[in-house]
Amino acid sequence: MPREIAFFDALIPTILLALIGAAVVSWTLDWVFARYRLYRLIWYPALFRLSLFACLFAALGLAIY
Amino acid sequence: MISALDLILPKSRLKRALVPWQSLLRDWWREDAQVLIYIAKVVGACLLALWISLKFELEQPRTAMLTVAIVMQSRTGMVFAKSFYRLIGTIVGITASFVLVALFAQERVLFLSAMAIWIGFCTAGSMVFRNHQSYGFVLAGYTICIVGLPATITPELTFDIGMTRISEIMVGLVAATIVSDLIFPQRMWNMLLATVRRRFKDFSDLLASMPDSMSRQDHGAGAAALRFAGDVFDVENFRASTALENDASRAHRQRLSLLNAEFMAVSTSFHALEQLLRRQQRSSHPAVVHAIALAYKPLAAALQYDGRSVRTEVEAGAVLQGVRNAKASLPQRLAALRLELQEALSEDERLDFETGAELLQRFADELVAYAGTYAALTQQGHALDIKEAEEPPPSLGLHIDSWAVSLAGLRGALALGAMTCLWIFADWRSGIEAITLGVITSTLFATSPSPERTIRQFSLGALIGTVLLYIANFKLLPYAQGFTMLSLALIPGLAIAAWLTTRPATALVGAGTFIIFLLHIGFNSAYSASPVAFLNDAIADFIAIGLAASMYALIDLSNGRWSHQRLAAALRKQVVSACRDALPQHRVRFESRARALMQRAKGGRRIADAQDKELVDWLLSTLETGCAVIELREEMQSMKDEEALDALERSLDRIAGLYAKPDSASRVAALISIKETSALLNTIDMMFRIAPTQRRTILTILHALRSALLDDDSVLARKAPLPEVVHAA
């Protein structure tokens, strides 16, 4: 994967796109969890959400580098 | 197991000795500890943002810290909402700066006038929207100063300046949201629930005191109406902030909105009932008032739980059946009373009774709906969801005064113009700082109910901030080495500012302290404070704040007779459009619009003087007449008879005329027209042409309207006194 992508001739880091992608995926998962009340099973939802996001972002980042 | 304490003290005495400590501890945890936790959160988030910025070698770590200070609030959901709008506002503002720099970088007059237009536009936008959205607009406006002005000096660096700014803000937002979400999060839901509970309790207190409080001639009604209007928008604002928060509040958003709409309806009906009884007490047969009060009492009594007002939605669920029964038996009670009164009353007095009965019936329906929604608020059932799907309650819209909006825009643009003139002609080194702060202060407080007081508090905060800044910049920071010592040097200032923001009375002082302290804190990536720059910046700050204060004093939209009259006229115009619009309005929309006008002007403040009281009276009069008019028009839609419709249209037009231009002549005209219409509906001919139930409903509405217009205590009577002759008639 290229580390920088040209966006209207401005070079933006690919990791920024990964960040946005991870945010979208984790929001979707968050919605699903809330909709089916799966947060009942989790001790500290806020921490879980953050960790989930960190995992997703790290996975995407590792895929790039 | 026997502990050491048990040996010293007998068990029961030990327990007794500990009781005061326990309650003390609990109080401390509930109040002081929360404040300490909040301060620790703010300071922690600031330092986290600072650390990340330094690690990433961003140019101005202070922007990240300032962002934290701005978005940090005690409720997690609010932090999310404000962060979201801060991000959007910044992105829009930076994009606008890019465009302006690309177009006019060489031409400073054109550049600055385009900037003034943009800022004016954004300030006007901030007046149209509420809360965080409004803040987003302000931010889009002043970001152009922060990014665009430095860019005029070095146009080739514009893109870098913009990107750095947005990265710093992102760092600040991430730090603030993570800290407030992870460490002792305060969920919106608890706050919403508390507000909704308090409102229901207040309302049932009011219901319980109703027949007795009638005799007292106080103006509790106005105060209650203003407070309830405030509550409606509080709940709406909290509800809007829950969009990004993930707890019970998101699942219940629809329900809360329904609850709000029902509350508005029931409080208006209650007020109408109260007014009607008050008027009847003076003019009608005492038996009528007594009978209505008698029929009303079981309703209020059913709402009591164990002899006191209902405190939670669970208790409301327990009394709900009782309220339903009271409502179901209401027609019987009214029929019995009607029979009893038959002989004693004249035709007019009987109509008085019917009007009261009709209103009571409507009030009971709405009360049951409101109590039912409230009781079901936290239930997980699906009974309510079906109802919600059928008819989502209309949202509380945006209602603006276009004059006020454009004047606020003008004010923002003028502030920029004045500061830039000073900058250009005096060739002043701190000009950019002064312009930025001047624009921030003269746009940020545009939506505050009393900008003058706001800016006074803000400048006190700026003073404190400057003192703290001096100490930090020249006494502490020069000795700091490494991140730990840097943090130690910053903590006192941050903590004092955060503590100021925790108390409602000094919240704005705290905001001023924070902004000044962090705007000029003496380091970027290395120590960079110099006494000359410090003095220059301090002078620039105070000139900017002084300019903003004089701008608010010059273009004052919140106080003074002019704005009061405009507001009263805007309220009356609601009635006019309720009468004259081609299609009848939705009642919830009408009510929320009238209340929004009031809320925007007065905020949650108490009624301070005679002018304020007059405004509240106009609000109540508008609500009462407007709702009756809307109801009448709904009835008229199903009517066929041309002659009666014509007469009713004419009466509506006269009422509209009265509210458009309240004077004695139009009041007399409206009263005569209503009387004529009632007389027409009472002819034998009409009795056959219109269905009896419909005829009775319309007659009672007309009667209610007429008695509202006749009322000598109302604000209408003060504005448009009736000539003596009419009185006698």
From TrEMBL, chain A:
Protein name: DUF1656 domain-containing protein
Record keywords, A-Z: Cell membrane, Membrane, Transmembrane, Transmembrane helix
Origin: domain of life: Bacteria
Transmembrane segments: 6-29, 41-64
Species in which this protein is naturally found: Novimethylophilus kurashikiensis
Keyword Membrane among record annotations: yes
From TrEMBL, chain B:
Stored InterPro entries: PHBA_efflux_AaeB/fusaric-R
Subcellular location(s) per record: Cell membrane
Annotated transmembrane regions: 35-54, 84-104, 110-129, 136-154, 166-184, 403-425, 455-473, 479-500, 507-527, 533-555
Membrane topology reported for the UniProt record: Multi-pass membrane protein
GO molecular function terms attached to this record: ligase activity; transmembrane transporter activity
Keyword set, alphabetical order: Cell membrane, Ligase, Membrane, Transmembrane, Transmembrane helix, Transport
Entry GO terms, CC: plasma membrane
Domain of life, per lineage: Bacteria
Name recorded for this polypeptide: Alanine--tRNA ligase
